[in-house]
Amino acid sequence: MERISWDQYFMAQSHLLALRSTCTRLSVGATIVRDKRMIAGGYNGSVSGGVHCTDEGCYVIDSHCVRTIHAEMNALLQCAKFGVPTEGAEIYVTHFPCIHCTKALIQAGIQTVYYSKNYKNHPYAEELFKQSGVRVEQVELDEMIIDLKNHEKLEFVSMLIQKLAQTGTTELDIRQLHEQANQLFTSYS
Ligand SMILES: [Zn+2]
Ligand SMILES: [Zn+2]
């Protein structure tokens, strides 16, 4: 079996964290890594003990939800709370950081930012990263790697298509089904 890369491993962790998000507008996850070890993680959610956007709706001011602490901030604050140094660390985030998080990440000494999806990438955030010598790299998550049944699913679908072909389904339909299945099961790598 193929071994998962560090980049994919940490990015998968951030995507997992995003599933814990309590804001209905966007689910973001962030993992801070040092020497190939996860030192903190966060997702966007309310202050501990506070009401959740998922229960009471977002608290929107100037088209931003002000109830939530961003995933990157939560991860950094976890380090602050438990006294874990962030100098020279890396962060894996599901979405390109906002300007506020960008500033906090730079100031906390984060050296590399890996992000999965472009999200309202602000030119000022990009400029700040550049200015501070922070490396920014896009790492798209290959979702197949976290689907442990991917191989079985692929075999099942191809078996179904083969059976369909025997029932007199037109060749054109079969070809289309093949293409659709291929698109679904093709990985990034
Ligand atoms: Zn919200
Ligand atoms: Zn942010």
TrEMBL record:
Family the entry assigns: Belongs to the cytidine and deoxycytidylate deaminase family.
Keywords attached to this entry: Hydrolase, Metal-binding, Zinc
GO molecular function: dCMP deaminase activity; zinc ion binding
Cofactor(s) recorded in Swiss-Prot or TrEMBL: Zn(2+)
Pfam families for the chain: dCMP_cyt_deam_1
Name the UniProt record assigns to this protein: ComE operon protein 2
Record-annotated CMP/dCMP-type deaminase domain positions: 5-137
Keyword Zinc: yes
Keyword Hydrolase assigned: yes
Species: Bacillus solimangrovi
Any single Gene Ontology cellular-component annotation: cytoplasm
